[in-house]
Amino acid sequence: MAPEPTHEPDPERLKALEEKLAARRQAAEEPSADDKTFSQAAMGWRLVYDMVAGLGIGFGIGYGFDVMFGTKPWLMMIFTLFGLAAGIRVMLRSAQEMNKARSVAEAAGEKENSRG
């Protein structure tokens, strides 16, 4: 005859389950090396998006003003150039931020290596 089931939990099984859960949580919390830094392609695409956004917004504003004031194509060309300048400025600022973040990450990595 089989032993009667009890309504109390088995402490050994609970302990094993808690250990498995703790190991999974720890593995999920540790970011991979890819998550810590931007990949080179992601950085490049971000810079392209910054440039295209500046051009698009400048073109849109210029075209809107041309339609309102009937000055086609002069304001569109002028605001497209302003958009180009703004896109370059944002792109350079983004590149500086990425370089700063990378240098901080590298410095932190060197500190970790010198301690270990």
Summarize the structure in words.
By secondary structure, this protein is mainly α. It is about 80% helix and about 0% strand. Helix 3 runs antiparallel to helix 4. The longest helix has about 40 residues, at about 75-115.
Question: What are the main properties of this structure?
Answer:
4 helices, 0% strand, elongated, mainly alpha, 116 residues, 82% helix
Fraction in beta strands = under 5%
Based on Cα principal axes, name the global outline: elongated
- The low-pLDDT segments are none
Tell me, rounded to a whole number, the average pLDDT. 85
Number of discrete helical segments: 4
Q: Biggest β-sheet: count, sense, barrel?
A: none
Q: Distance between the terminal alpha carbons, to the nearest Å? A: 58 Å
**What sequence of helices (H) and strands (E) makes up the elements?**
HHHH
Please describe the topology of this protein.
Layout: H1 11-29, H2 33-36, H3 40-69, H4 74-115
Helix pairs in contact: 3-4
Task: Describe what is shown at a glance.
The protein is an all-alpha fold and 116 residues long. Helix content is 82%, strand content 0%.
